[in-house]
Write a structure and sequence with these properties.
Blueprint lengths: L18 E2 L2 E2 L11 H7 L4 H4 L3 E4 L7 H7 L3 E6 L6 H19 L14 H21 L4 E3 L12 E7 L11 H13 L1 E8 L12 H10 L2 E7 L10 E7 L1
Parallel strand pairs: 3-4, 3-6, 4-5, 6-7
Antiparallel strand pairs: 1-2, 7-9, 8-9
Helix pairs in contact: 3-5, 4-5
């Protein structure tokens, strides 16, 4: 395990977040995200299969997927514990977090594959672009960015055709217990009409989530089928696969 894991930096510390009088302590949130292009690669998506679909990004963090997808005619919504804050505050926090993460990344290069990004500076540019696209869209279309705390989502059953979940479940198998994983997975599936994709399948150590088979056995009893699929995105070593779950 590297000294710092950038792949999970936007989610790092989520299990440490607290709610005080229904307000988050912004200083405890790490607000970093991925670009639209990274999302397409990590979830093995094509623009053709997104057309005409409703999509949930959960948790969305500072990712640019929702902004770009809506610009292309996709009905995308993001949900995250941080969205109760104004876009300007999140942008300022995100820039601070990116600076810190990139300083630490110099010490942790060995834990990552440098083919998608050729340098830490290129990585920084992608992280800043994702943040800027996300917060600009949030300021203009706040209804697309819904604050909520898993494992409870404020949507009707089958609200979305497709749900995407990156860098949360499985990444924290050592901090979030099996019951939380199962409740969250079932909640994501509840609001999904057809298909859920989760990336990656490993924890911070790079090892596959230890109770994955047990989790998938319970999901199969719920009537879902699942398969692990290799995808063309692997920045943290060991993260080159996603889970595709289909309902019915």
């Amino acid at each position: 395990m590297a000294a710092i894991d950038e792949t999970s930096e936007d989610e790092k510390g989520r299990d440490e977040m607290s709610l005080e009088e229904n307000r988050l302590d912004l200083s405890r949130i790490i607000f970093i995200g991925r670009t639209y292009e990274e999302y397409m690669a990590m979830f093995g998506l094509s623009e053709e299969e997104l057309q005409g679909r409703t999509v949930l990004d959960c948790p969305g963090g500072a990712c640019a997927f929702t902004a770009r997808a809506n610009a292309l005619g996709v009905g995308a919504v993001s949900i995250d514990i941080a969205y109760g804050y104004p876009a300007r505050s999140l942008e300022e926090k995100g820039l601070e977090d990116i600076r810190h993460a990139m300083d630490q990344m110099e010490k942790a290069r060995a834990g990552f594959k440098w083919d998608y990004f050729s340098s830490v500076e290129e990585l920084r540019e992608h992280r800043e672009r994702a943040l800027q696209e996300c917060t600009a869209d949030m300021a203009r279309y706040p209804e697309r960015y819904v604050p909520a705390v898993l494992p409870v989502l404020p949507f009707d059953d089958g609200r979305f055709d497709l749900t995407l979940s990156a860098h949360f479940l499985f990444m924290y198998g050592d901090r979030l217990d099996y019951d939380f994983h199962l409740k969250t997975l079932r909640e994501l599936l509840r609001v999904t009409r057809k298909e859920l994709r989760i990336y990656p399948l490993v924890g911070l150590s790079g090892e596959r989530y230890g109770k994955m088979d047990d989790l998938l056995a319970q999901i199969a009893q719920d009537g879902c089928t699942a398969e692990e699929i290799r995808v063309p995105y692997e920045f943290q070593k060991g993260t080159g696969r996603m889970l595709r779950i289909v309902k019915g």
